[in-house]
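User: Working on a comparison across species. This one is Periplasmic folding chaperone from Novipirellula aureliae. Can you predict its structure so I can line it up against the others?
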Amino acid sequence: MNNSPFEIFRRNLKPLMVVLIGLAMFSFVVLPALQTYLQRNQGAGDQVMVATFDGKSFSESRVAYLTRNHGSTVRFLRELAEETIRRGGMPKTPGFRYDAENKQVTSLGISETPDDRLSVRTLQFAAEAKKAGLELDDAAIGSWLASFTDGMLSDGEIDAYLMESTQNRMGRIHLYEQLRTHLLADLYQRAGFATVAMGQMPIMTPAEQWQSFLKLNQEATVNVYPILVRDYLDETDDSPTESEIKKVYDEGKDRDSSEQSPEPGFHRRYSAEFEYLAADIQEFIDEEAAKFSEEELRAEYERRLKGGDFQLPEAEAAADAAMSDDLETEEPATEEPATEDPSVEESAVEESSVEESVVEESVVEEPVMEESSVEESVVEEPAVEEPAMEESSVEEPAVEEPVVEEPAVEESAVEEPAVEESAVEEPAVEEPAEEDQSRMDRFSSSNGVRLVAMQDEEATDNPAEEAEAEQPNTDQPEAGADELEAETDTEAEMDTAETEVVAETDDTAETEDVTETEDAAETETEQPKTESFEDVRDQIANSLAVPKALKRMETSVMELDSKMRRYFNEKAIYDSNASIGQAGDAPEPLDLKAIGEELGFRYEKIGPYNTISIAEHPISNSLDVGSQEMEMQRGPSFATIMFGGVTRTGQQIPMQELYSPLRTVDDQGGKIFVSWKINETEAYTPKLEEVREEVIAFIRLREARKLAVAAAEKISNDANAEGKSLIDVLPEDKQDQVLTDLGPFSWMDSFGFQGASIGNVPELDSVGEAFMKTVFNTEIGKTGVALNQPERVVFVVEPTAFQPDIEALKAQFKNPRDRIMAMFSGGGSANQIITGFFESIDERTGFTFTQTDEE
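Assistant: Here's the predicted structure for Periplasmic folding chaperone from Novipirellula aureliae:
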């Protein structure tokens, strides 16, 4: 008998297959449904019922479960859409929109903002859709998914993406449940809105469209006298009746209070206390900068100076250079005669009077053209040098020098015969002329372009003088070769002076000329002016300190985060063991204040704060540090992480646990925070005795509001009856409290096709719809009364101007774009119909929600 396991398996193959298939069906069909049921009803006996409709109550845990799955579904659909588009498809379901320019999904076709109240509303609308006969089975949901993926992904791939996106927390049955609920709710809501909208365009009558247009485009200027409600509290009864106290308490015990609502609210939001250490990067930089010695800073200054740093702006540098040129122009004037050759001077003196006059005119123009101190010093000796300059300008046409890159060679070739001739006829002049010629040739090679430009300008400005200068040149007798040689040598000397700044100094150059060239080189080098060490000392110190400060701060933050995380893990283990009765030593609490003093961080303990009040603290604006994988993109805010919430992408963020460290950054403030939550208080409905004082304060405030409104109406009536202005009817001691000429402002501020919000008057506290309605419905010269949005201030308003005039508004109203914008701004009977639609459903289903949306 064969007892091999394989033989046993072969003999019982069919029964085993039946059992395995049954287990698979149980695992993939029954278990998910059972899990859903258990998750919906877990702890229902201990949970507070937060919503009711159709006789059914919904616990806090079930609503949270629905909201969490909604967030997971939104994230999965977004990833699925991106994968579909990446494969070349495009979702083809109603409501899906994709911004091709920014490559971003802008709408998925279902609500993308997970929220507890929205979850209950979605269930309510889905139930109403089923009552109306609408139904979506699994086949319809599968067809919707196929259209959403445009046939690019198979069912297996969709399941794989779902498991990966939700980290195996959702299966297909959970996904279908979410899609069915949201699609049914969307169908029912769109059917209800069919009477107020045509697609995305709201339906409005022409009169409603005109009124909406006026709200966006008409502006008012007003005088306002504000009356504070709290000023009348002393006139109210501080001991209201017990029945009134009970009535107000019941009205607001399940409502969260709001600074922008006049309704009573005594419900307690979730609150928490926090500890944090803050590091200010500037403080770290200052500490590191103070450690550098003066020698180190000066060495860094010299190093950067050589690299071209610390140069002044061009305008300032040009001004400094001009001043420097003026000073240098004057200095060589007294020294130049000492460096000139006497023989050249004597030759120049013997020139004809006609030539001297031509030369002098040329000399007047040259200082404007020349920049270096050497050139200007030469210009100041007209008797010595400038005749040669003028004649040379004629002998060396402008065409020749720009074409030839090294004019020194050409000039040398032309001028050599003159030198040789002079050597024969005038031996006394030969040696200095040859030395000067060597230097002047080099100057001509570097400055030839500038000389040609000056030559062209002279030729253009005075052609008669040019012709006169040419005549002696062409008819020069041979007997005057010595004079021509002296003139040519003088020009060559000018050319060489500047060449010595650019090229190497010739071994045969004279010592005086080398010194003069070096001075000119220094002058040109100093053209880009630089900042002094004293001016940039702090800048250098900070730049050297920044890398060290950042490294030190990062090391300190990581060390602090490591200590806090270690304590969090040890405490979690201890609490877990304690919960099952295993004794152990509790971890030693961290003294963050002492650690902060050691690291140079600022310690603070804050709270208790809730999601609203935390906004008062600067830490609420800090953001999660992000990750390198996301290219340092910042994450959610401190408040979103600590209290839980939804990000802009629809991601649901769970509430941060106690003593779990969090690093956030305030980029604008230059601060980094390492924080944790040390205590928390769950949301709850307080007993009457706990909030009795708040209830009484609300009753008295409501009575004071009536008194303030009565006082405001009396002022308004007196002004209107007597035909006086607002200021005139007020007592003298109150007239300075009138705020005059506020505005202009409009009733509504448009933000494109997304809608509009109530207009803003910065000088007034929280103006609302009632204020705007009173202003724009009161005639100029008359007064009206309105409360602000939270009804803590009563305004007496007096319009003084409306602009533009009605005719201009009518002309503008003819523009189709302005009319469309008016339709999207809201208002009119459409809003009333929508409000009535929700109210009728709530009344029919007996809908209640014990907590309002947090403002």
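For your comparison, note: The radius of gyration is 45 Å.

User: Helpful, thanks.
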